[in-house]
Design brief:
9 helices; binds adenosine-5'-triphosphate; alpha+beta; Bud32; disordered N terminus; about 280 residues; 12 strands; about 45% helix; tRNA processing; binds magnesium ion; Prot_kinase_dom; globular
């Protein structure tokens, strides 16, 4: 039903926000959300809530379904009916609800960096709303996407197409080069924070999760960004050294300022190794 509504022009939204914000403020959030509330109830995509162990926090708007509980935020999915000119969107609510200055900053930073990416033509979700009452942002839902992390797992499980992973590494390198050339530091680069839009063969990447991002032109910051990704690669995908090498090679070729960044990456690696030797 949700899919049918989406096809019929209904609004499907992704939202991300604070883990467990007190929802006593919902009334205010509702009015802050203006049209969105008026657009009719948000419809559940596929039924029951996903999280089993702890009861999930109430959604920032009625009818949203919790689809992902991350370290920083809860991500919901919902579909607004009523034929509004409102494309698919994903709400994300930040923070704990206990005052939340840090969460608010992260949310604002996420929105800012997403906008900066989009202005530069770098693929990232559209930002629809920023709601300071519930520390929530409403983002374009990259429909039927999967994370690069899941894609790598499934390719590795099927035991073939390592050539495809090599190409994906190259695409990732190009994308990160474009992002860094805009002086956007992601701050939390992992394979779970990169989505692949269908059809998968097109390797159509979308960057997400900019809550720890910041703006910097310093090669050191860019080098550390790549180092964080390298660490994530090593721990999440042990057999992907050649893929990561392909990523760095295409990054170096695509970025106008890659020389000092790669140099810094080498330095940061060395520091990391020394630290782990010292213990
Ligand atoms: N716009 C979007 N479209 C489709 N899926 C999304 C979107 N935003 C987030 N997701 C899904 O929700 C997951 C969590 O989102 P996100 O990374 O933004 O939140 P987070 O709380 O910071 O998560 P984590 O701490 O796990 O990194 C993503 O890995 C992805 O699977
Ligand atoms: Mg994430």
């Amino acid at each position: 039903m949700a899919a049918a509504q989406a096809e019929a022009g209904g609004a499907h939204s992704v939202m991300a926000g604070a883990a467990g914000t007190a929802m006593g403020d919902l009334g205010a959030a509702g009015s802050a959300m203006g049209d969105f509330g008026a657009a009719g109830p948000l419809m559940d995509g596929a039924g029951a809530a996903v999280v089993a162990e702890e009861p999930p926090p109430p959604p920032p708007l009625p009818g949203l379904r919790l689809v992902q509980q991350g370290a920083e935020a809860h991500v919901y999915r919902g579909l607004s009916s009523g034929g509004r000119p409102w494309p698919s969107s994903r709400p994300k609510r930040y923070g704990t609800g206990a005052g939340g200055a840090a969460e608010r900053r992260r949310m604002a930073q996420e929105a800012r960096s997403l906008l900066r990416c989009r202005r530069a033509g770098i693929p990232a979700p559209v930002v629809y709303f920023v709601d300071y009452v519930t520390n929530s942002i409403y983002l374009e839902d990259i429909v039927d996407s999967i994370t690069v992390q899941d894609h790598i797992y499934s390719v590795q499980k099927s035991g073939n197409d390592t050539d495809g992973l090599h190409k994906l590494g190259e695409k990732m390198g190009e994308l990160l080069a474009r992002m860094h050339d805009e002086d956007i530091i992601h701050g939390d680069l992992t394979t779970a924070n990169l989505l692949l839009r269908p059809p998968m063969e097109k390797l159509d990447l979308v960057l997400i999760d900019f809550g720890l991002s910041f703006i910097s032109g310093l090669p050191e910051d860019k080098g550390v960004d790549l180092y964080v990704l390298e660490k994530a690669f090593i721990s999440t995908h042990p057999d992907t050294e050649t893929m990561f090498k392909a990523l760095l090679k295409s990054y170096a070729a695509a970025s106008k300022k890659s020389g000092p960044v790669i140099k810094k990456l080498d330095e940061v690696r060395l520091r990391g190794r020394k630290r782990s030797m010292i213990g």
